[in-house]
Amino acid sequence: MRRKLAAGNWKMNGLRADLTQLATLAEQRGYDVDVLICLPATLIGSCAGLPIAIGAQDCHTATHGAHTGDISAAMLADVGATHVITGHSERRTDHHETDAIVAAKSRAAHDAGLITIICIGETLVQREAGTTLDVIDAQLAGSVPDCATADNTVIAYEPIWAIGTGKVPTTDQIAQVHAHIHARLTARFADGAGFGILYGGSVKGDNAAAIFAVPHVTGALVGGASLKAVDFTPIIAALA
Ligand code: PEP
Which residues form the active site (predicted)? Predict the structure, then answer.
């Protein structure tokens, strides 16, 4: 059975002094879940030796070349990253990343030996229009490359209206989308039933247990509450 994953996303937060938070997290041994923190690229190389998985938040589609300011998946792997988030809604919005770009980045990450956390999710307008599952279908079809396997890919369902807002879907709404994603992956990939499917969007210590009890939720992608060990630890504990 796939191990559960508590994944943090620090976004554009964190200086070297803040890595003490990871040292504190690393002391929380004994939980039978995988813990991952996706850091700004500037901090990844400073984490060697910490008994905690480290990921990045984006990578380029190319292995190297004339792409000023960009970072390739191989470079991230070289400094110790094991995972990379692709298709986060903030990148889809801020950098106009399409499903095709997300799929290309995910392929590049797999080629470099990284595990991708591919983010999908609907806007509030789409939810209220009743098109959530259509949006999910289009993003799964367009963003998840054919080379995805249960070993190299985790899906994160992140309703955009729940990210950083304190709003969380009902457990019935999460259950419906996660069951749908599980069914679609099972239909498309030989090992599709084994893909991890994270929920993301305003997960906190006080709502984590209810979310983790939903079928086909194998963990969480956590933004704000992953920045401080004191906030992230209860979420890890709820998953264990
Ligand atoms: C995220 O950035 O992926 C996220 C889920 O953020 P938050 O937990 O702050 O809503």
Answer: 88 (electrophile), 158 (proton acceptor)
Residue 236 lies in a domain: no
If you measure from the C-alpha of residue 92 to the centroid of ligand 1, how many angstroms do you get, rounded to a whole number?
A: 14
Taking phi first (over 0 means left), then psi (-120 to 50 degrees means alpha), and beta for anything else, what does residue 183 get? alpha
Residue whose Cα lies nearest atom 8 of ligand 1: it is: 223
Beta bridge partners of 85: 117
Which residues span the domain enclosing 216?
Answer: 5-230
Model confidence, pTM? 0.97
What is the per-residue pLDDT across 14-34, written as a single tens digit (0 to 9) for each? 999 999 999 888 887 677 899
Domain containing 19 — which CATH number?
3.20.20.70
* Cβ–Cβ under 8 Å, residues 154 and 99: no
Closest residue by CA, ligand 1 atom 3: 223
Number of domains in the chain: 1
ipTM over 0.95: yes
Between the CA of 93 and the centroid of ligand 1 the distance, in Å, is 15
* Cα(61) to centroid(ligand 1), Å: 24
Q: Is residue 235 part of a domain?
A: no
Pair 197, 216: CB distance under 8 Å? yes
